[in-house]
Amino acid sequence: MRNCQINPSILSADFTNLERELHRIHTADAVHVDVMDNHFVPNLTIGLPVVKRLGEVSDLPLDVHLMINDVDRWGPDYARAGAASVTFHAEASAAPIKLARDLRSAGARASMALRPATPIEPYLDMLPELDMVLLMTVEPGFGGQAFLDIVLPKIRRARRAIDGTGLPIALQVDGGVTSETILRAAEAGADVFVAGSSVYGTEDPAAAVVTLRNLAAQTPLSV
Ligand SMILES: O=C(CO)[C@H](O)[C@H](O)COP(=O)(O)O
Fold first, then answer.
1. The model's pTM
2. Which atom in ligand 1 lies closest to the alpha carbon of residue 199?
3. Is the ipTM above a cut-off of 0.95?
4. Cofactor comment in the record (predicted)?
C-alpha cells in the first residue's frame, strides 16, 4: 500500500461554521485552505486573520494554498500564522526561490503550484527548495469543476523528476478529485489529493476521506 494523503478543501465547506466543518473531516491528513484575492483568480475567499484563527482551533495541520498576487510579500505571513505548508503559485511569484526559502525559515513546508497549462520543466532545478509541488487539475478559482485529464502527463513527468532528486517531495493534485479521477492521478504519481466537493458534498465527509485514501493507496504507480 502506498502512503497517500487526503486534504479536504474547505472551499466546499459551510463558511458560516468552519470549526464544525473541521470536525467533520477528522479522518483527513490536513485541511486545505484556499486563499483567493479576486486578482490572481476571479474569486475571493478568506485572508490572514481567518487562517490564523483556523490554526488555533484545528487539530489538523493547515495546508494553505495561496491563489493571490503579491505572494512574495504575503506568503511568509501565512507561515508565521501557523500554516504547516504554504503553497504559492509560480505564476504569481517574482522570486520563487527566495520565497520558498522564506517560507521554510518561517517554519512552514514550502510548496509551489502550477496552473494546468504551466509547464514544470522551467522549475525542475528548484525542486530541492520545495517540500511539495501542487499541480492544478482545474483552472484555479472554484470548486466543483471537472478534472482535466490533460494534466496527467505533467503529473508523470513531475513524479519522475521528484524521484530523480531522491528527496521526500510530495506531489499534490487539486481540482475535480473524485473516487474515479483519483485513480488516474494516483497511477500517474500524485500522492497528496485535495478534494472539496467529493468530501463535503457527501453525507459523511470523514468516511469519504477514508474511501478516497484507500483508493489512492491501492493504486499501483504507472509512471
Ligand atoms: O483550489 C481549488 C479551486 O481553485 C479547490 O481546492 C478545488 O477546486 C477543490 O474543489 P473540488 O474538489 O470541488 O474541485
1. 0.98
2. 12
3. yes
4. Binds 1 divalent metal cation per subunit.
